[in-house]
Amino acid sequence: MILAMDTSTYVLGVALGDKEAVKAEWTTYEKKNHSLRLMPGIDHVMKSINVEPSDLSGIAVTTGPGSYTGVRIGVSTAKAMASALQIPIYDVSSLEALASNRRFGNGLVCSFIDARRGQVYAGVYEAREGDLQAVFQEKLWLLDDLLAELASRSLPVYFLSLDVDLHRDNIQQALGSKASFGGATDSRIKPAEILRIALDKPPVSNVHALVPRYLQLAEAEKNWRKVQGDHE
């Protein structure tokens, strides 16, 4: 039985399952600190199907990109549990998990998370018969640059993001009828998809070496490096 968790956005989700089926899934949209919700959510899901920690065979966690604090909480919790239980841990991209909501569609899928200042964390994939093929490696994009790249391609683009309304006008202006958007259900990461992805990949080789994929420095680290540079 694998425990999957996502804390990369304000939506928090937990799932339990194996190769046969998803046994339990829990999601909350409440905008509250993940440190107050994650362990109670895990406890709730496990108790709902009478699973004990000793029944777990692995932990799957989204390692980002996304909220710095949220990702850090999820990764730290997953590493602590995997280490204490001596079980494998699976590293899943939050953007891949989000894009998987459209893996049975046609054309390109762009999953993104707002990064402020006209930037987004984004991954672009092509959906092919239930599989996703990466078109652009996930990275921090200037939204205008990303839209220019997508506009140069002939395929339609399906956008998935909790932050889509922040950028809908710019996307439609750049892509016109080639752009379409996921609804509320498909615009958030589903714990069951994290579980599915994890079950189809090997675990990380070293639990303690797993780190969040932030894709850019935190503001505090940027400021620290700037100060250090000023004194060199």
Principal-axes shape call: globular
Q: What is the helical fraction, as a range of percent?
A: 25-40%
Number of helices: 7
Low-pLDDT runs of 5+ residues are 217-228
Tell me the name of the CATH class of the largest domain. Answer: Alpha Beta
Report the sheet-strand fraction.
25-35%
Oligomer: single chain
Q: Please give the radius of gyration in angstroms.
A: 18 Å
Adjacency order of strands in the biggest sheet: 3-2-1-4-5
CATH homologous superfamily annotation of the largest domain = ATPase, nucleotide binding domain
Average pLDDT over all residues: 92
Assigned CATH architecture of the largest domain? 2-Layer Sandwich
Pfam family, one: TsaD
Domain Gcp-like: 31-185
Protein name: tRNA threonylcarbamoyladenosine biosynthesis protein TsaB
InterPro entries: ATPase_NBD, Gcp-like_dom, T6A_TsaB
Structural descriptors:
Nucleotidyltransferase, domain 5; 2 domains; alpha/beta; 7 helices; 232 residues; five-stranded mixed β-sheet; globular; 10 strands; single chain
